[in-house]
């Protein structure tokens, strides 16, 4: 089938940029991105491209080129489903915080709602594309729901997981390492795969388009994220050893990364990994392994998460220990809240967990991030507290919204955030932090002035020459 009309359910970090590039590269295909969140759709449609709901380098240019030509953002879900020949499902699949699988399994309620809506509205055959990160065999669930309508419409399910890195997503979409498409092995399934292959072939060479069984495609996404996170946890575990032995983790990473069998990517020691994928997907993988009674495999992958938690706690504990074993009523400035530079995504950011640890000792935290706004920062902290309230029996370390707003201040000027601080903690590797006037910052801080560089982006020697007491990762 030659596709002329595509609908995407979900206008978030995956659906928005992916469909924007698809529309840019396929001007002959109408692409409609739908979402029930009216404000989000309004932001996607805003004439001021600085108000796009997602910050991603290059995204505004893509939106400017395609929006209104063949790219549309709408809240009219039923019409978009009805008109489309191919429907991408790109909604959130968070970790469950209730019921069976709480704390580990993926919550598929939004996926199921999408399937039921598609089944209800569709009057013609459709190709359904799984774009969200899903547990292996989810396609089976989708197929069961869609085929149970009894209205004679035929649905083919294919898996097309995304492999985007936030901060470089547009480049990743323009020049992907590979495009993975999994589907059924019967004639209908193979035809559905070919339809999506033809779409991507408008800008991706056929050699980079990999077709597989649908179960292999679903599992490949979880496995890719698990392997990447494993590398981060591996080098972070070595960073702790470096600090005890006098070795330099950056030198160790460079030495091992020059081995072609290992490679240099994802060997940067830090305060820990974050983002919407790594922790969620590994927990999901652990849950699936336990479901199939693969206890040793589950324990192996769970350790990747435990090392990440250890690294975040180690960083927070080092701040408390260095500041004479208490941070109560001391001003600690966080530079960075996003989980990595060049994105406004703060989901599972290490900054959230470091802040939470310090707030338990009633630190006064002042935060500056170039792209994450005040509303999002407070939302992240509130969500963590609500999670604690729901998952733990001991409520003694729970902080109310009022207490959080009393202890946490969000700034839009970094120098104001840094003024009269006892310590600075760098939680995101934004390039602009390297350009700051650190002599000026030192002059206006409480002495002794501490810097905890959780991303190893500043020169320790230059900071020490100024007068800072510096702490880095793995040195």
Outline the structure in words.
The structure is a single chain. By secondary structure, the chain is an alpha/beta fold. Helix content is 45%, strand content 13%. The protein is built from 18 helices and 14 strands. The protein has helices at residues 15-25, 38-45, 59-66, 77-83, 109-121, 138-146, 169-174, 187-200, 214-245, 249-257, 278-291, 295-322, 350-359, 374-391, 401-407, 414-418, 438-443, 460-466; strands at 5-9, 30-34, 71-74, 86-89, 126-130, 155-159, 179-183, 209-213, 331-335, 364-368, 408-411, 423-426, 450-453, 469-472. Strands 3-2-1-4-5-6 form a six-stranded parallel sheet, sandwiched between helices. A six-stranded parallel sheet has the order 11-10-9-12-13-14, with helices on both faces. The radius of gyration is 24 Å and the shape is globular.
Jot down its keywords.
six-stranded parallel β-sheet, 475 residues, 18 helices
pLDDT < 50 stretches: none
Beta fraction: 5-15%
Tally of DSSP helical segments: 18
Could you say which structural class the secondary elements and strand pairing correspond to?
Answer: alpha/beta
State the gist of this model.
This protein is an alpha/beta fold. 45% of the residues lie in helices and 13% in strands.
How would the blueprint of this fold be written?
Blueprint lengths: L4 E5 L5 H11 L4 E5 L3 H8 L13 H8 L4 E4 L2 H7 L2 E4 L19 H13 L4 E5 L7 H9 L8 E5 L9 H6 L4 E5 L3 H14 L8 E5 H32 L3 H9 L20 H14 L3 H28 L8 E5 L14 H10 L4 E5 L5 H18 L9 H7 E4 L2 H5 L4 E4 L11 H6 L6 E4 L6 H7 L2 E4 L3
Parallel strand pairs: 1-2, 1-4, 2-3, 4-5, 5-6, 7-8, 9-10, 9-12, 10-11, 12-13, 13-14
Helix pairs in contact: 1-3, 5-6, 9-11, 9-12, 11-12, 12-13, 13-14
């Amino acid at each position: 089938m030659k596709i002329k009309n595509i609908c995407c359910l979900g206008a978030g970090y995956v659906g928005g940029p992916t469909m924007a590039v698809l529309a840019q590269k396929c001007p002959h295909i109408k692409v409609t991105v739908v979402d029930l969140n009216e404000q989000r759709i309004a932001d996607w449609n805003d004439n001021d491209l600085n108000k796009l709901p997602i910050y991603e380098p290059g995204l505004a240019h893509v939106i400017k080129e395609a929006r209104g030509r063949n790219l549309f953002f709408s809240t009219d879900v039923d019409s978009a489903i009805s008109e489309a020949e191919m429907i991408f499902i790109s909604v959130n699949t968070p970790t469950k915080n209730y019921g069976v699988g709480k704390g580990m399994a993926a919550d598929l309620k939004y996926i199921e709602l999408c399937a039921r809506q598609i089944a209800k509205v569709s009057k013609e055959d459709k190709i359904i594309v799984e774009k969200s990160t899903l547990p292996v065999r989810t396609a089976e669930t989708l197929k069961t729901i869609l085929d149970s309508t009894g209205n004679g419409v035929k649905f083919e399910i294919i898996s097309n997981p995304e492999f985007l890195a936030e901060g470089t997503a547009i480049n990743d979409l323009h020049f992907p390492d590979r495009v993975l498409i999994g589907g059924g092995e019967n004639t209908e399934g193979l035809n559905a795969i070919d339809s999506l292959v033809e779409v991507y072939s408008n800008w991706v060479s056929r050699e980079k388009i990999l077709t597989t069984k649908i179960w292999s495609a679903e599992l490949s996404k979880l496995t890719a994220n698990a392997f990447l996170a494993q590398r981060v946890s591996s080098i972070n575990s070595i960073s702790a050893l470096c600090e005890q032995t006098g070795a330099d983790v950056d030198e160790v990473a460079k030495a091992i990364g020059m081995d072609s069998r290992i490679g240099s990517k994802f060997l940067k020691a830090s305060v820990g990994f974050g983002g919407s994928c790594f922790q969620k997907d590994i927990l999901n993988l652990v849950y699936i392994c336990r479901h199939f009674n693969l206890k040793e495999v589950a324990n192996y992958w769970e350790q990747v998460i435990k090392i990440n938690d250890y690294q975040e706690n180690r960083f927070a504990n080092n701040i408390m220990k260095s500041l004479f074993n208490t941070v109560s009523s001391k001003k600690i400035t966080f530079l960075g809240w996003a989980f990595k530079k060049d994105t406004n995504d703060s989901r599972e950011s290490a900054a959230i967990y470091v802040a939470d640890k310090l707030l338990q000792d009633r630190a006064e935290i002042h935060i500056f991030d170039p792209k994450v706004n005040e509303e999002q920062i407070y939302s992240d902290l509130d969500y963590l507290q609500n999670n604690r309230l729901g998952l733990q029996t001991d409520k003694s370390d729970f902080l109310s919204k009022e207490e959080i707003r009393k202890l946490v201040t969000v700034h839009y000027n970094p120098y104001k955030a840094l003024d009269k601080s006892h310590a600075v903690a760098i939680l995101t590797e934004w390039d602009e932090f390297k350009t700051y006037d650190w002599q000026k910052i030192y002059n206006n801080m409480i002495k002794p002035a501490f810097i905890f560089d959780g991303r190893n982006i500043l020169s320790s020697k230059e900071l020490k020459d100024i007068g800072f007491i510096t702490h880095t990762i793995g040195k």
